[in-house]
Write a structure and sequence with these properties.
One of its GO terms (cellular component) is cytoplasm. Helices cover 32% and strands 35% of the residues. The chain is an alpha+beta fold. The radius of gyration is 15 Å and the shape is globular.
């Protein structure tokens, strides 16, 4: 599928481009992003380049991973990364991270809602899942505001960047 651009009242969601490498690199220096999301630690500039130039465009080309950067309309500042990833037929996972300085202003709910609305309208989706490491209360708050039902906690679901197993929360949002 060709990448899309979405707009909300305060944001433009668009594919990341080569000019966004520095912003992605800077954002991913945040300890919370490095702990709660699957990014390499340390996160190097080469990691940002590979994602922006290769991995994220490939997701669109293969119809498996629809990743958009959210940028503020008033300043063009990067707010975060928002994606829908195909899990199985009709099931997608919503994933996101937000730039530390942009958190707590409602941008993640706004961006994720726009992406999910696009997914409901465009993709063959009957369920969107959300997963977060237990303790990531910011991610959980966004998911709950979007309408996800937290369905449970999976014990020791994954190994985090600290090398230890952690519990994960899982939620679902079924077709409205």
């Amino acid at each position: 599928m060709d990448p899309v651009t979405l707009e909300t009242g305060r944001l433009v969601l668009r594919p990341f481009g080569p000019g966004d490498v520095d912003a992605v690199y800077d954002a991913c220096q945040d300890e919370d992003i490095q702990f709660y999301t699957p990014v390499p630690v340390p996160f190097r500039r080469q990691d940002a380049e590979k994602r922006v130039r290769e991995e994220w465009p490939e997701g669109w080309a293969t119809d498996k991973d629809y990743i958009l950067g959210a940028f503020r309309k008033d300043s063009a500042a990067l707010v975060g990364s928002y994606c829908l990833t195909k899990v199985s037929q009709g099931v997608y996972e919503l994933g996101y991270w937000a730039v530390k300085a942009q958190r707590g202003q409602g941008y993640s709910v706004e961006a994720a809602r726009a992406l999910c609305d696009w997914g409901w309208a465009t993709l063959d989706v009957h369920r969107i899942e959300w997963w977060a490491m237990a303790g990531n209360t910011g991610s959980r708050a966004v998911a709950e505001k979007l309408g996800f039902t937290v369905e449970g906690t999976l014990r020791n679901r994954g190994i985090a960047n600290d090398g230890k197993p952690h519990d994960w929360w899982v939620g679902g949002w079924v077709r409205p």
